[in-house]
Specification:
two-stranded antiparallel ribbon, flat, 3 helices, three-stranded antiparallel sheet, 100 residues, alpha+beta
C-alpha cells in the first residue's frame, strides 16, 4: 500500500508452517529498522484518508447485527447489517473492535 514504510521480515511461510529468525536476531533487525525509520522524513509515509468512513458488516444472525448496531453511532441498515458511519478513522477502529 505504501512502499515508503519500512518493514522487516522475520519469518517466511512454507506451506502450513513458518521458518523464523532466532528471536534475538529478529529483535535486533526490528530495532535497527525502527531507528532508521524514525530518523528519516516521515512525510512520504502518510496516506491521504477519505473525509468519511463507512463500516458495514453483514451477519448471518439478525441478533448479532442488532447487538452490533448498539455501538454508539451504529445503526441497522437491514435486519442482518450493522453500519457505522463517521468522519473519525479512530472511531472506525474502535467500532470494529466492538462490531466484529
Amino acid at each position: 500500500m505504501n512502499g515508503n514504510i519500512g518493514t522487516v521480515a522475520v519469518k517466511e511461510g512454507k506451506g502450513g508452517s513458518t521458518v523464523n529468525l532466532h528471536p534475538a536476531e529478529a529483535c535486533d533487525r526490528i530495532r535497527s529498522q525502527a531507528r532508521a525509520s524514525v530518523d528519516r522524513d516521515l512525510a512520504p509515509c502518510r496516506i491521504a484518508l477519505p473525509d468519511a468512513f463507512r463500516l458495514e458488516v453483514r451477519y448471518q444472525s439478525p441478533r448479532r447485527a442488532y447487538r452490533a448496531s448498539l455501538y454508539p453511532g451504529g445503526r441497522l441498515a437491514d435486519p442482518h447489517t450493522a453500519v457505522l458511519e463517521t468522519d473519525d478513522f479512530f472511531e472506525v477502529m474502535r467500532g470494529a473492535t466492538f462490531i466484529l
